[in-house]
Amino acid sequence: MSLPKPIVFFDLETTGISITQDRIVQIGAIKVNPDGTEEIKNVLINPTIPIPPGATEVHGISDADVQDKPLFRQIAKSFVAWLSGSDLAGYNSDNFDIPMLIEEFSRVGVAFPEEETKFIDVLKIERKVNSHKLGETYQRYTGEELEGAHNALIDIYATIKIFHQQLEQNDHLPSGAGDLEVFCQGEFKRVDFAGKLYEKEEKVYWRFGKHKNQLVSETKSYCNWVLGSDFPTETKAQIRKVLGQ
Q1: Residue spans per domain, the chain
Q2: Nearest C-alpha neighbor of 125 from the set 168, 86, 189
Q3: Is the pTM of this model over 0.85?
Q4: Cα-Cα-Cα-Cα dihedral of 131, 24, 116, 164, to 10°?
Q5: What are the per-10-residue average pLDDT scores of the chain (245 residues)?
Q6: What whole-number distance in Å separates Cα of residue 163 and Cα of residue 154?
Q7: Residues β-bridged to residue 119
Q8: Domain 7-185, CATH
């Protein structure tokens, strides 16, 4: 892959799957620089809310593991500075990790992401060239069992290995972050970072749900439902902008 600037592969472990209600408990990130060198971050976070037993069963992180760890607000500025100037990549990151990270930064008043950031979701590439759970995908590409899944750093190493194999085994894939983002997202520009909206000919459309591919401005009752439901804050802000609120 051609890298004009660094790309950060990252994964979050959380207290649950609600982007607005749950919190991050672990950040694993590997920055791949244009010269091929890597920088690694692996941080446990005190989420300030209890970690449900069901979540602990998935990632193995308990309340006791994080009780003396820093709060997100304590690492936010240094982390966003480390991410600055990089593109971002992950596995199912468009649907979960990116919106979750944006939500956490928003809570502590830190601007994220930078305007020129490109987003690559390795799962979206995989869905276009094969089919999808991280462990199954890893085994298909490497012939190996993925040991230690749901540890953020292990998952990210697996994601990077899959990503390199995707590029090597599929000659038609573009090599640059910008072109890969278009490949993942489609020809129309994304409006919100969670990928619920897209722009076509300067108008905003739904990318999901019963009004998929319809104008947001012409589905006000649906807009009100989304605004009152568990959707990312940034998505709601974009909807309000379309409605002129």
Answers
A1: 7-185, 189-243
A2: 168
A3: no
A4: -40
A5: 92 94 97 96 97 94 98 98 97 94 96 94 89 87 91 95 94 91 85 93 93 94 95 96 94
A6: 14
A7: 88
A8: 3.30.420.10
